[in-house]
Amino acid sequence: MYTCQGGCIQSASLQTYKQIMSNRFKINILFLIAVVAVLASCKKSYLDTLATDRIPEEEALTTTDGCWKLLNGVHRILYSSHLGRQDMVGQGTNMMDMDILGDDITISSTSDWFLYPYIWLNAHRNPQSAMVYFNYFFYYEIINNTNLLIDNVNAAKGSEEDKKAILGQAYAYRGWAYFQMIQLFGQRYDVNDNNTGAGLRIVLHSQSEVKPRSNVKMVYNQINSDLDSSILLLNGYKRSNKSHLDKSVAQGFKARVALTQQDWNTAATMAAAARSSYTLMDSTTYMSGFNDYKNTEWMWGSHQQENQTTYFASFFAYMSCNFPALNIIISPRAIQDSLYRQIPRTDVRWQLWDSTGTNALYPVPLDAAGNEIGTRIKFMQRKFKVQDPQLSIGDVPLMRASEMYLIEAEAYSHLGNNAAAARALYELGKKRDAAYLLSTKTGTALLNEILFQRRIELWGEGFRFYDLKRLNLPLDRSRHKFLPSYQKSVSAGGISWQFVIPQSEIDATKGVIIQNPL
């Protein structure tokens, strides 16, 4: 299989994938369970597991043990390679896409794997692009798995406690997956609008007929219904590790959704509840590489064990500063300079980026002899590091308590409760900067301070495109030095902010699924 860089998928392997996915609502249960054992290395596409590593259907869905294995397969999907591509690495790819499409990350080479998304060319507005294809079918794959669990776990043999935990996580995953998708493929949610534009095809059962896309409002209704069910079912559940979902994560999902829907009261309430049992990390831990889900403030993360290395098919093979992947060597990730210059030197986050491009304390990839082979550029990052420079392994941060403080602060700011907004922001700001003072700003000035803190705190974690779209803000790349002739700015609103539907989906459903405006 080969690809044109960042663009169209080509080869017979795609046809195989299309055949599987076009019939995805009648998916073979044995294939879905196979994801538990998938990807011994990046050389093994998950499509290659179709004939092996299978669990009998009677075990998979008729016992809670089998259902747990299927749920663990969903956890694994979040960092597994897809479409045989090194840059299609589960949720990590969506995170990279969202920031590359934004204005806070810069790249520095025309050979960068994410060049086309960066310049908004042949990417999210191309029905044939790999970017569109991945972000559509990746989330539907999660939805298909969770629908199997939702349809079958209550009748499975096992304890009621296990059934509730499995079902609660399945609802949370499904609500989250639809939320991730509707922000891409639907129009921006506007609380002052009827939100009746085309949204997504809502699939709630594992054997479902092809139906047209429901409108944006209906999709959000389903998302909230799933998350409400999850929060109820997961009450009291104690997860074994943070790659699983619990009530706090479901509440975090609910806070994100409410923020996007401009439901400020719910956003503030859910964010405060979600973060209540977590402690913000100290400055030393903040500089340790963002690669360990045992971190006290991490609420949810994908955990990868040493014997599960995916080599170059990894979030850290693109976003870390020290793994010797070609993309990191030639095009290290950097922060937009004007954003960086606003960070006080007393703030620990000021240390994440090298404004000089010459500071040897900022690691770059090394060769086998220990010699530097990585390019050094101004404002390059060291936020993300692999735990072992010889491996691309690292836990991927999917939700942190700091985000919840920021949601709470933003929601209160929109409500006009400046005091509550400033207090929530202060709890985070003081932890990052000992010199930070309780803000006395109000109105737009306070909101802008909160949004600035959000940009530097969540840099590289997959929020910027979503934030620009939900806030109806333009893309402004006027300060970007690389390829300045491409996409210096994109006006707020309009069809440019809406992903198109993969053409294969239009074809497979014989036009039942309609295309977005081109």
Summarize the structure.
The chain has 20 helices and 10 strands. The protein has helices at 12-22, 29-33, 57-62, 64-77, 91-100, 115-118, 130-152, 160-185, 216-233, 247-260, 264-275, 283-286, 316-319, 326-330, 337-340, 401-415, 418-432, 443-457, 464-470, 503-508, and strands at residues 2-3, 9-10, 105-106, 298-302, 334-335, 353-354, 380-381, 396-400, 475-476, 489-490.
What does this entry look like structurally?
This protein has 518 residues and is mostly helical. The protein is 42% helix and 5% strand. Helix 10 runs parallel beside helix 16 (401-415) and helix 17 runs parallel beside helix 18. It is globular.
Q: Could you list some keywords that capture this structure?
A:
two-stranded antiparallel ribbon, 518 residues, single chain, two-stranded antiparallel sheet, 20 helices, 42% helix, globular, 10 strands, mainly alpha
Count the E strands. Answer: 10
Strand order of the largest sheet: 1-2
Regions with little confidence, pLDDT below 50 for 5+ residues = 1-54
Overall mean pLDDT: 89
Q: What amount of the residues lies in strands?
A: 5-15%
Put simply, the count of helices is 20
Topology:
Blueprint: E1 2-3, E2 9-10, H1 12-22, H2 29-33, H3 57-62, H4 64-77, H5 91-100, E3 105-106, H6 115-118, H7 130-152, H8 160-185, H9 216-233, H10 247-260, H11 264-275, H12 283-286, E4 298-302, H13 316-319, H14 326-330, E5 334-335, H15 337-340, E6 353-354, E7 380-381, E8 396-400, H16 401-415, H17 418-432, H18 443-457, H19 464-470, E9 475-476, E10 489-490, H20 503-508
Antiparallel strand pairs: 1-2, 3-5, 4-8, 6-7, 9-10
